[in-house]
Amino acid sequence: MSEIFDRTIMAELSEDGRSRRQAMLMGGAALAAAAAGSLLPGGARAGAAGKTEKPIDFLFAIYPNGTLLDFAGPNEILSLLPDTKVRFASPAGGLVTLEKGVIFGPTEKLSDVQKVDVICVPGALDLSAMMKPEILRHVRRLSETARYVTSVCTGSIILAASGVLKGKRSACHWAFLNVLKEYGAIPDPARIVKDGRFMSGGGVTAGIDFGMAIAAELRGAQAAQEVQLLVQYDPQPPFHAGNPLDAPPKIRDAVFKILPGSENGLMRPIL
Amino acid sequence: MSEIFDRTIMAELSEDGRSRRQAMLMGGAALAAAAAGSLLPGGARAGAAGKTEKPIDFLFAIYPNGTLLDFAGPNEILSLLPDTKVRFASPAGGLVTLEKGVIFGPTEKLSDVQKVDVICVPGALDLSAMMKPEILRHVRRLSETARYVTSVCTGSIILAASGVLKGKRSACHWAFLNVLKEYGAIPDPARIVKDGRFMSGGGVTAGIDFGMAIAAELRGAQAAQEVQLLVQYDPQPPFHAGNPLDAPPKIRDAVFKILPGSENGLMRPIL
């Protein structure tokens, strides 16, 4: 598949090149912004002024059937953070078919990644692609040398299965939270959980809050808040049904029925 | 590129097939969930019980250099909504290289899409791929027959440029909000704006709130709230800097400097 992948990338880059050439006609900030391929003109990022720190290597370990928003949320935050290089890896490398058939990439092959500063494992219902012993071994290997070992949603179940969360507190999607116990981790229902160098977010959308928290941890509160304003993260949900404690009983009971076992935090992921 | 694209899809589907075969060993809910390729087991979706309505065709019109989270947010909400079919289209069809070089797909070719119930145009800094007259013509054509014409972030500038927002109130990323006036639309700083059949969200992360609002509009408050609980949308940002009115002055001023013109809502997108 790597040849197909390379040719696809090349075709896309060439298309991208056209946009950039067009942008060059604009001059000034627009030109620089197009070159940076970012919301931020001039290649600048939030809080970047004068910084000369070594870039942080931030790796999302994604996989087939994964949930897009679990990593698309924190990716948007981390990608705008100064001196931070976001990378994606997956068990097979290349393009990855996520939940609902969407294709995302490019990704490096997980086994090819030597070392990162932060590893983040996002979640899904179907964790099977990551639950193979040879893949869990790479998750463990990268976790042992990372400054921060992190997850969003049921990604914490993958981390736990790799053996690195023994005795550590961790968040998880509420419906699956207590599955963590089966791997020796300590379930914590909070939306963002930090236990030493382990940081985790709750279900799906919690990835954005987690992203903000790790951004502040990595580059300080000023830079994190600048990114927050850049992505206008001032959430105003039109309803209040986002966790089982606050949701109206009618909503909660309907969802308990959709997700068997979730009333006890014991919905089974596909392992 | 279509041959490459087809071969990539086939390779990925075959890989996907392996996961599903493995999931079959689990039996029961897990099997059904794997077959549905969704967080929800049994092919069920929130509030779906007994419904026989015609599925809603919900189209995201995406494009090269677009911002992933602008549509990944509402996509997660809409994909879990009952009787709702989410589609993606782009100017050239196939895989699309978004901002920061990430590849997303598959997409239909925009000119091939006949008619949809909802069109949603997400945003970016670089709108140039959508600003070509022949592409704007398709945006206008689909908007004229859609039940709802919607956008996230600077996607409203694309809609406005296509001519469909004349005299309509619309949201936009705060930094670009007043650019809407140049196309005869009425800028509204609210996070979610509804003006008749036109609905829009503010910058980037507002796409999730917009997604919740349109979900309720399309399938009712019960179904929308069930999805909210499924994706644990109970936001708890660790800082309060998500809009220029609330952000600490130090944060706001730094971002005004990063985004020239934004203090007046007149940051220039790439057109």
Automatic annotation (TrEMBL), chains A, B:
Gene Ontology molecular function: transferase activity
Protein name according to UniProt: Transcriptional regulator AraC/glutamine amidotransferase
Keywords of the record: Glutamine amidotransferase, Transferase
Organism domain of life: Bacteria
A Pfam family annotated for this UniProt entry: DJ-1_PfpI
Gene Ontology terms: biological process: regulation of DNA-templated transcription
All residue ranges annotated as the DJ-1/PfpI domain in the record: 69-216
